Records
---
Amino acid sequence: MITPWDVSEDVDYKKTMEKFGIRPFKDVLHKIEDPHYLMRRGVIFGHRDFENIIKSINEKKKFAVVSGMMPSGKMHFGHKMIVDQLIYYQRYNVKIYIPIADLEAYWARGMDFEKTKKLAIEEYITNYIALGLNLEDTDIYLQSKKDVVKDLSLKLAKRVNFSEMKGIYGFSGDTNIGHIFAPILQVADILHPQLEEKLPVLVPVGIDQDPHIRLTRDIAGRSKDFNFIPPSSTYHRFITGLLGGKMSSSKGDTAIFLSDKPSKSLKKKVMSCKTGGRETLEEQRKLGGIPEECVVYEFYVYHLIGDDKELKEIYNKCKSGELMCGACKKHCYEKIVEFLNDLSEKRESAREYAKEIVNNM
Amino acid sequence: MITPWDVSEDVDYKKTMEKFGIRPFKDVLHKIEDPHYLMRRGVIFGHRDFENIIKSINEKKKFAVVSGMMPSGKMHFGHKMIVDQLIYYQRYNVKIYIPIADLEAYWARGMDFEKTKKLAIEEYITNYIALGLNLEDTDIYLQSKKDVVKDLSLKLAKRVNFSEMKGIYGFSGDTNIGHIFAPILQVADILHPQLEEKLPVLVPVGIDQDPHIRLTRDIAGRSKDFNFIPPSSTYHRFITGLLGGKMSSSKGDTAIFLSDKPSKSLKKKVMSCKTGGRETLEEQRKLGGIPEECVVYEFYVYHLIGDDKELKEIYNKCKSGELMCGACKKHCYEKIVEFLNDLSEKRESAREYAKEIVNNM
């Protein structure tokens, strides 16, 4: 599945890519001088028009990255990937935009504005800062307070009809008008940086967000009067849940949250996660483990081990039958504890700054 | 049909009133100390909750009137009625709001914003001022520029679903999302004055606008968090076109425009309009005319003769066979010329002020 030296693809991802014209990231990888490990390792596996961004990077020209957040529940490791990418892009000449989708949360989930704001501050922005994102030059905003985005969305709303929205999002007669409008507000989030300055915009997302990207590119194409550059996008794989399925905020057993404290129960969660181990220790010594099917190994690949050499060593030790799952999980837990302790400390100083940012909006 | 002393009803109007719970205006007429002639004469024939406005008037308390305009083509006498009503309410403690529906014109008719603005200034606002409306304390605004209204509409959009909008407005899959959103923006136009100050709001409209009023009252009722007073409304009859059908901007023969110049062709238009005359002069001398079916008489009632005594005299002379249609039409034309000349002169000084108002928005 995923190794640090071989970019392979799942069949499902491949199908989606072919159907919707998403192109393999590995085809452009060699053009990037210093790719992020998520790129090198194929976690970021697809793109649209990423060449535009590479061109800006290589010519040291400015580009924009838009990455929205819809605060709902606690942040887990799956959410961290997007922040890692934003941090990576900050080494270049980039302007980052982070819309907080409080209007969408209101329309689609009935969340009131104050609650969304509180969650954005305490959970999301605090963690973004603690993870290392520099918010100084970042335009982080509440949708409900951003007039330029709201105004753009009202104009763009003319350029798409109900059938199209129904086709993309499955809206029905029961859907409230705000909810129907929400994707257009998101389109405006993505396109509005170009109102100020005509520059390429990148939207790094999970594959489930591609309908938004397609809608945005369609609307951009229809809006000759604005002369938009259709946004570029990258697609990253989803992290596997601890038990093998999806990592989900609403199922505590499947996820490790960024605010989890080192504890017996956390250790138990890690120690009982799905691995690529064999039925018996003896068999594993003989045949080796299967890191390609191992949640622990995926944690190393996605989050815990930035160094390719170190990662390859673990891979080899597993494959050769030298490393047993028990020891490996313990090692993983230790790395997680180290990470969480460090993050927790950084959150302490981040919290006030996060509050300040949102209260100044 | 319509006489200055007897408030009768058309069957169609009556049906609509019964179906949708609009109440007869004549039932509240006696509570108004100094009613407008359009009220006295039954041109304003129905209402919802007008008692709230009467209460404010009699207690000298403040109320609001909201009356939107969607500039499209030239203003004719049919459009004048609403301005007459606004002028009437200015004798009381009123705050008038006039939204210019440039967003709706964009969504529903593809009119660009600059064109709508130009038409609003040159045709509508200039005529409003020339007709005698005082815009000093009036909040006249472009929808596209009014943040408080846009923000309110985005919130209210959660409170109505697509089926309801489809049921009221007949929207289909082809309808663009802006157009679907437009009525909610209008709801926000009507309700937003209450965000500042909790006061009764009146919306004087033609009966065709009642679906908007019902939607507004429904949404107000669902928005307990805002504690809105459901808006009051009045309903006026449509003026009949010169040829007997609808008065329409797009059919020049049916309408007299406020910018029409006295001319042979205008005279011809008036002289050939539909009257309540008999087949022959002889017959008319014997039986009298039928003012109830006469467009000329309607012009007197709606626009040209404010004094009830003068109007009654004409009515009687017609009924008795003393007044023939030719002379009556000539008299009507003279009154129209007088009116148009006066208005044209007033427009000269109004034009600059109108421009100033909109450019300061």
---
Amino acid sequence: MAEFDVLGVGNAMVDVIVHADDALLQREGMVKASMQLIEADRARELYDRLPPGIEVSGGSAANTMAGIASLGGRGAYIGKVADDQLGQVFAHDLRAIGVHFPPAPATSGPPTGRCLIVVTPDAQRTMHTYLGAGLELTPDDIDPDLVSAAQITFLEGYLWDPPLAKQAFLKAAALAHEAGRRVSLTLSDTFCVERHRAEFLDLVEHHVDVLFANERELLSLYETNSLDAAVDAVRGKCEIAIVTRSEHGSLIIAGGDTHVVQAAPVEHVVDTTGAGDLYAAGFLFGLTHGRDLPACGRIASIAAAEVISHLGARPEISLSRLIGAVA
Amino acid sequence: MAEFDVLGVGNAMVDVIVHADDALLQREGMVKASMQLIEADRARELYDRLPPGIEVSGGSAANTMAGIASLGGRGAYIGKVADDQLGQVFAHDLRAIGVHFPPAPATSGPPTGRCLIVVTPDAQRTMHTYLGAGLELTPDDIDPDLVSAAQITFLEGYLWDPPLAKQAFLKAAALAHEAGRRVSLTLSDTFCVERHRAEFLDLVEHHVDVLFANERELLSLYETNSLDAAVDAVRGKCEIAIVTRSEHGSLIIAGGDTHVVQAAPVEHVVDTTGAGDLYAAGFLFGLTHGRDLPACGRIASIAAAEVISHLGARPEISLSRLIGAVA
């Protein structure tokens, strides 16, 4: 039996969440619901113009690992923080929920990454990311023992942005397959797909077993406006491809089958940050616990529904209790 | 006309808010609803054992200033942060809402203070405070121009804890009176009253114009179990004394009069952190805007009701809009 269900590898960061209206997005030239990379200067400048916020640990794959832990799974995480206050917060929050996060040697480089998240009244989140210490993730940070100890290594597409993280990503994928494990990838963001389309196409076909994409990301990957065409395109490229479609539920594409999964009901959507991250958590938890694909989709939908019903991208209540009755 | 309505002086800090049950309080020997001072080592040790949290700017008098700003008032703040990430967060959040917070020279001393807040299911908050940079507040930080530019200088009882802050406190009070301004004090916490009872009794009688205390703090100050006796004891000691009584509303004691103010209705109490801070904000806003004492109490109650209806000790919605219709 593997020591861990899922090992997440990603850009570690702390989210700064603020509420603002669409006028602020327009004023700052922000594209709603996207993630944009920014440099330290722009991060400072933008932060100065944002309203008061709250700080919460984030990072896409780290959120997924928090979800795995909340579901009762065994998760581990590799990501780079600096030895500063936000780095301590990030490490605390991950370890406190039971995710194995090995201490990294202190770095004298950039501070812990921050993601400035503007939540508009329609619950959409618009993100500007300063990668900070994330820029220093290298192949040396990928511990082969950790990779082979996990049933699935889960990688975020965002890792394709920092120069050396890409190599770390490929090393982790290769090690996982050598150990007879599976590799999972989330495409992360439409802009991210546009930046790296050719490489992502190659990744999906040759390195990934379980792919997560939302509808817009998949359409962008295959440069089509037709969901059917995109589904046809991805089918067979990897073992399982999952397309999330917000309130329209999700599709699970495996072999010749397509499973249609309903979205779980949400009384009031507060903040959509983390919806994809927690969907992935639920799905991978199911997959590593011997559930069939429709059940994986149901657990995923419940986890996603919980996280969008409150501010922040990590579960507020025990997902394990939440799925107990229904999945 | 004064440039500022209220100048707050206090221990600047960032709150780390976690949800936990009463078992954790017992295990850690925490006294529910109190504030306890802790050293850096104990702060680290305790933090390691707490569940994941969120970080939000706090500090009693700073919360009050955020309330003043949210009500449309002109607030300024003096308090000490370090030149670190939490210090930047604290300064950002205060300035972003429009509070004047003059930059302080960088210090090589302790990091920005933290308050570890455990919120139990009954919405009570139990606080452990590491003062950090707050320990370095000295009389030199009290800018006489700022004090004389504010109608009221508002001081938190917590300032009596760091050794030199006490002198800063007395300097601010003396400067305010020299400039013909008023001095306001909140007793802050029962333990704080117990630590400094004799000095607080002297302060209230000789240096304070407007006193805020909750019922337990006032009973502790006058070492009595009778609210009537405590009210009799405080009457005439300062121009206005306000006793807050949670869901039982508040009493405003001025000259021979006692005004009874109802608590504002709250549908669901989530986190009582900041109730007293925001009550003071509403009251001082009313007082500096020519409202009569019962109206000050009504504004205060509405501001307090808003802050206990969500997590964190600062308003989430515009208090100015909230009081528009009713006060």
